[in-house]
Specification:
By secondary structure, the chain is of the alpha/beta class. It has a single domain, classed as 3-Layer(aba) Sandwich (Rossmann fold), CATH 3.40.50. Helix content is about 45%, strand content about 15%.
């Protein structure tokens, strides 16, 4: 008998690892998964931020823990996956969200900054997905991977946004998602990407201050920026059995910006 919609979205007893989960979009997605019943492992570099975020989730009745790790470093990534399994059990859901950006004109962009962005935003996603798949998902014949890309990966840079490494990395995440979905479908693993538009966050603070938050909002068909709820629904769809027949896809959550810039 077909399950109800509530049953399809239910994550009770599942384990979700969310990188970059101590604030902003990562914490919002952790709330969504936890509110649906998942046990949450948060990760980022700073223990203080993680402790505060885990306490926030716990206050909402969510089973949340944390591990400090730098997802630009291979040894940290492998430790993160192994310790999560040791402390919480097999990982059902991986949200690859840790990321970095750098602003500079393309002609002056430092190579070290290019490497920093690529190592975290692309290489780190691959290593963690590979590790979690080998440890948990492939042996069990199931899993959900959600990669956070960006509408910056769907089109070229506006002249005011001099973030070529970031845009390039997020374009790579979109195709990484497609390629991984094609390979790992036979193991029952779905791989999808979310492409957020502009959300107020630490990463976008400088750009929104430079360009004007109100002006950026007016540039979207819905005339608004993203808020503390706008990623929840799609995250839960991609992470749950409600989306079990969706893989290799990206979807923009951007108030319609990508519809008018092309993507």
């Amino acid at each position: 008998m077909p399950r109800t919609i509530q049953q399809l979205f239910d994550l009770t007893g599942q384990v979700a690892l969310v990188t970059g989960g101590s604030r902003g979009l990562g914490l919002q997605m952790a709330h969504a998964l936890g509110e649906a019943g998942a046990k949450i492992m948060l990760s980022s570099r700073k223990a203080d931020d993680l402790e505060e975020a885990a306490a926030e989730l716990q206050a909402a009745g969510i089973d949340a823990r944390w591990i400090a790790a730098d997802c630009a470093k291979e040894e940290d990534i492998r430790r993160l996956a192994a310790e999560t399994v040791e402390r919480m059990g097999p990982i059902d859901i991986l949200v690859n969200n840790a990321g970095a950006t750098w602003g500079a004109p393309a002609e002056d962009h430092p190579l070290t900054a290019w490497d920093k962005v690529m190592n975290l935003n692309v290489r780190g996603y691959f290593i963690l997905a590979q590790e979690v798949a080998k440890l948990c998902m492939i042996p069990r014949g199931k899993g959900r991977i959600v990669n956070i890309a960006s509408i910056a990966g769907l089109a070229g840079n506006p002249s005011a946004m001099k973030t070529i490494a970031y845009n390039t990395s997020k374009g790579a995440v979109v195709n990484f998602t497609r390629a991984l979905a094609g390979e790992w479908g036979e193991y029952g693993i779905t791989v999808n990407a979310i492409c957020p538009g502009f959300f107020p966050s630490k990463m976008t603070h400088g750009l929104l201050a430079q360009l004007g938050a109100d002006k950026m909002a007016q540039g979207a068909p819905l005339r608004r920026l993203g808020d503390d709820e706008d990623l929840k629904g799609l995250t839960l769809l991609f992470a749950s059995d409600a989306g079990k027949h969706i893989t290799g896809q990206w979807l923009a959550v951007d108030g319609g910006v990508s519809a008018i810039i092309g993507g």
